[in-house]
Fold this protein.
Amino acid sequence: QLQLAESGGGLVQAGGSRGLSCVGLGRTIDLYNMAWFRQAPGKEREFVAHIARDGGDIIYSDSVKGRFTISRDNYKNAMFLQMNSLEPEDTAIYYCAAYGAFYEKIKNSQTAYEYWGQGTQVTVSS
C-alpha cells in the first residue's frame, strides 16, 4: 500500500518562498496521479494543485495560480510544491494525496484521493 510523507513546512515571512516535498513509500508513485491540498484553521480542506502520473495535466486553484508550482520526479519517488510570494492566507496544513491513475476522477475533489500524507504545517507571518 502506498504511504505518503510530506516535509518542508515551517515558518516563513510574507513575500517569501518555501518548498514542500512528498515522498512515496511502499510503492512507486508513477502509478498515481497526485495533488496538494491544504487546510487552514477553522476551514475545510481545499484543493491546491494536481499533477498527473506523467507530469502533465497540471491544475492549480485560482488562489495559488502564478505563485505555486507543482512538480514530480518519479525516479526519486517524490512530488514537490514550490511556493513563492507567500501570503498570510496561505497559512495551513499542507497535505499530499494520490489516486490510481487508471481511474477517471474529479481531480480537484478530495473524495477522489485514496492515499493521504499526515500533513506539514506552513505558517506565513505578516
